[in-house]
Amino acid sequence: MIISPEYGPQFDRTDGTIGDLQLVKRWCIGDSAKDGQMWTPRQGRYTYESEEQADSAIKLYQKSNPPDRVPSTLVAVAWWCYPGHFDPCGRCELESTEDFLASQ
Fold it and tell me: What is the spatial distance between Cα 33 and Cα 2, in angstroms, rounded to a whole number?
């Protein structure tokens, strides 16, 4: 979808920018059974600096909770996040749900 420039700069998922603002790449916990939707709240405190840290958090969630509360389909997903507070803005580099599913 193309949005008119009169609404201001738009998010570009391919390079992680919103106008002149450069976003940072962080890792979030997504559910591959739900097209990679974030499983945790969309807040910076639930993002991780590396894929390994996100994978460790997934294992901890799965170990510390009953199987019916935590899906076995959780995966680490790269998201562009705002610098500083790291609130997620949008998934990295993937143009569609089909791209995400193909990457799994």
Answer: 29
